[in-house]
Amino acid sequence: MRKKVFDLLLNFYRTKRIDGKRFYQEISVLNLKDRPLFKDLIWGSIRKWRYLNWLINRFVRGNITVELRIALLIGIYQVLFEDKIPDYAAIDTTVELTKSAVNVKNAHKLVNATLRHISIERDRLPLPPSEAILYSHAEWLYRYWRDRCNIPDLSLLLKVDSTVPPITMRVNRLKCTRDELKEKLIDEGIKVRNGYYSPDALIVENLRRDIRTLNSYREGLFYVQDEASQLISHMLEVAKYSRVLSICAAPGGKVTHIAQMQEDEGEIYAVDVSEEGMNR
C-alpha cells in the first residue's frame, strides 16, 4: 500500500497535482481498513509538504534524488503526525519501502538513521524561520495575510487552516429535512451534530465505516461537502427558474446544491477544464 502512496506522491512532486483517476483506481482495490491510512498518507503529506521538505533539507546533507526525498517525506510524516502508527513501525515500513523503490546505494540506511533521529528529537526539533513553512503555506499568501489583511491572530489562522476538517454532510432537502436525516443516521449508528453556519450541514462525529455503505448515502439523502463550500450557494441567494453559470464546477458539489435550492426548477451551466473532474 505504501508503494502506491509513494508512486502518487512522486507524480505529485513532478506535476504539482494528484492524478485523481489513478488515486481512485488505487483506493478502490484496497480493503476498507487500509483506505483511511492510504488517504491520510497522501493528503496529510501534501498538507504538510513544505514543512516536511524543510525538515529533510535540515537533516539530510547534500543533494538527494527525488525518490529518496519522497520516501523520507512519507516516513517523517508518519513519525510526526500519524498517532496510530508506532514510530518503530513507521520507520521499519519506510526502510522496506526505500529498499524496493529507491535505487540509491545505502539509501535505506540513511532513511533509517534520519527517521530515528527525528523520532528521538521530536520534542526538540528546530523551528523553521517562517510560520509559513511551519504550517506549510505559500510564502506569498502568508505575506499577503500578514501585511494587508490585519488579521489579529495570524498564527492561529495558519494552524487551523492546516488541520483536517471534520467530515460534513449536506442534507438533500429535496428528499428529507436535516432532522430527518439526523434520525436516520442515528439509526445507522452514526453520531452527528448540526453545523455551525450552514442550515444544511451535519458534522459527523464517529464515522468508523466507508460512508458509501450507508443506506442514507445510497438513497441520495446527503452529499459530503465542507460547510464553507455550502455557504457559497447560500450567498448567491439563487431563486427558482434562474440561470446560473458555474465555472470550475467539478466535481459538482455547489452545482448540485444550487439545483437543490432551485428545487430542480432552473438552468445551470457547469464547466471545468478537467474532463476527469467532470466525469466524477
Overview of this structure, please?
The chain contains 15 helices and six strands. A four-stranded antiparallel beta sheet has the order 2-3-1-4, covered by helices on one side. Strands 5-6 form a two-stranded parallel sheet. The two termini are 24 Å apart. Helix 3 crosses helix 5, helix 4 packs across helix 5 and helix 6 packs antiparallel against helix 7. The protein has 280 residues and is α+β, with helices and mostly antiparallel strands. Helix content is 54%, strand content 9%. The relative contact order is 0.08. The model has no long low-confidence stretch (mean pLDDT 91). The protein folds into three domains: 123 residues, N-utilizing Substance Protein B Homolog, Chain A; 72 residues, 2-Layer Sandwich (Alpha-Beta Plaits), CATH 3.30.70; 44 residues, no CATH class.
